[in-house]
Amino acid sequence: MKKGIFIAITIALFTFSAFGQKTAKADPKKAVNAAFDRLIDGIKQVDADKVMSSYEKSSALLIFNNNGSATKGWDNVNTVTRDVYAKLSNVSIEITGLNIQVLTANSAFVSCKWKQTQENNGKLESASGRMTLVYKLIGKDWKIVHRHTSPDNPDSSRPVFPSERTNP
Hints:
By secondary structure, the chain is α+β, with helices and mostly antiparallel strands. Helices cover 32% and strands 38% of the residues.
């Protein structure tokens, strides 16, 4: 009899402890941050495969480049990225003002300021600007579906509204 009561109490304790445990939902903001960190690691490592794995493999992928041009489609972005990365070394990138906003269960955006130095065919280059990345949850992975970068100091030959020439 004592053995039966002991077993019943043990089963009850395990049952109650299982019901008492809450399943923790993954924080989507952390997952988007991890996806962004993988992109930045790929840039620092000059790893075109890692960088391109951050993007949705879609013909709808749209990149607004720092120089004012646009690149559409994963295949085109992949070709440009591989061509550029073949010439790069010693890449350093600094991210500041990182802002991650989860919009829905499957969409988010990341905005930040960046400063990058690199050697392009042995010649030192540096640039800085702002970037916004739009992420979409595809399966279990957050992928970039749109990127927009702009320079801190646009070329004087590019038109800028007079009202936008100075920051308040």
